[in-house]
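testing teh design pipeline on a random one, pls ignore if ur not involved
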C-alpha cells in the first residue's frame, strides 16, 4: 500500500477491519466476506447510491445514521452494522416499493431465475407486497435490430447509463423525467434504433440487473447476463490513463 494512503481502522458487525481512506464501507465489507445487498452497485462502475439497498447503520461521534455503503468512505473508528431488524425491514420495504411501482411479472420475464431483483426478494423473505400496485403504463422499445428495452421492468439503477458513459464512452443512455415518471432514454428520448451514438456493443444489456434490457431471440428465463468483461475493461482503461 503506498505510503501516501492513510489506513483507517473500523468495526463492521463483530469484526475489526482496516482499509485505505479511498475505500467505501462496501469495498471493505466485501474484502472481508461480509455480504451487503445492492442493485445499483457493480464492480467496475462508479458508485451512485441509487437503490438504497446497501444502507447500513453507522455509528460515529455517538450518532447512528443510515448510510449507503457503496457511496460512504470509511472513517477512523466507525462502528457499522450491516444486518439488523431495522435494516431488514428497510430493505424489504424498498423491494416491495420497486415491485409496486413497476410491472414485474416474473413468470413471463426473460430473466426469470437470473434476476437480481427477484433474487434479493427471495433472500429477504419477501412473500407479498404491502403497498398498492401502480400498474404504470410503460412502453417497450424493440426498434433496435438486436436489443429490447422494457421500461416496465426497469428499477432505475443507472447501470446502463454508467457503463455506456464510463466504459464504452458513448453516453447513449441517460435519465429523463422526475419522480414516478423517470425513465432511461437513448439519445434525448429517440427510439433506440435511431440513437446515432449507440455502438451496439451490448454492455448495457449485460449489466442490467433485471429483464429491462435483453437480447432479442430469448424467451422466458433464457436471458443470462454476462459481466465478466467489466472489471477487466475498467482496469485496462485506468492503465491507459
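output:
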Amino acid at each position: 500500500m503506498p505510503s501516501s494512503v492513510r489506513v483507517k481502522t473500523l468495526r463492521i458487525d463483530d469484526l475489526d477491519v482496516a482499509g485505505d481512506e479511498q475505500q467505501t464501507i462496501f469495498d471493505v465489507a466485501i474484502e472481508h466476506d461480509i455480504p451487503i445487498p445492492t442493485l445499483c452497485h457493480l464492480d467496475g462502475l462508479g458508485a451512485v447510491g441509487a437503490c438504497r439497498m446497501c444502507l447500513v447503520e453507522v455509528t460515529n461521534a455517538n450518532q447512528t445514521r443510515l448510510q449507503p455503503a457503496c457511496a460512504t468512505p470509511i472513517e477512523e473508528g466507525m462502528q457499522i452494522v450491516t444486518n439488523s431488524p431495522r435494516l431488514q425491514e428497510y430493505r424489504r420495504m424498498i423491494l416491495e416499493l420497486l415491485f409496486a411501482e413497476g410491472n414485474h411479472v416474473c413468470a413471463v420475464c426473460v430473466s426469470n431465475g437470473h434476476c437480481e431483483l427477484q433474487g434479493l426478494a427471495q433472500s429477504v423473505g419477501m412473500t407479498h407486497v404491502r403497498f398498492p400496485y401502480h400498474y404504470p403504463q410503460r412502453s417497450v422499445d424493440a426498434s433496435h435490430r438486436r436489443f429490447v428495452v422494457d421500461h416496465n421492468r426497469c428499477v432505475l439503477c443507472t447501470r446502463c447509463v454508467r457503463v455506456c458513459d464510463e466504459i464504452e464512452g458513448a453516453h447513449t443512455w441517460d435519465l429523463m423525467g422526475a419522480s414516478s415518471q423517470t425513465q432511461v432514454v437513448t439519445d434525448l428520448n429517440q427510439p433506440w434504433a435511431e440513437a446515432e451514438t449507440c455502438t451496439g456493443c451490448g454492455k448495457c444489456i449485460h449489466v442490467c440487473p433485471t429483464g429491462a434490457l435483453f437480447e432479442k431471440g430469448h424467451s422466458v428465463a433464457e436471458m443470462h447476463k454476462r459481466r465478466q468483461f467489466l472489471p477487466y475493461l475498467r482496469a485496462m482503461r485506468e492503465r491507459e490513463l
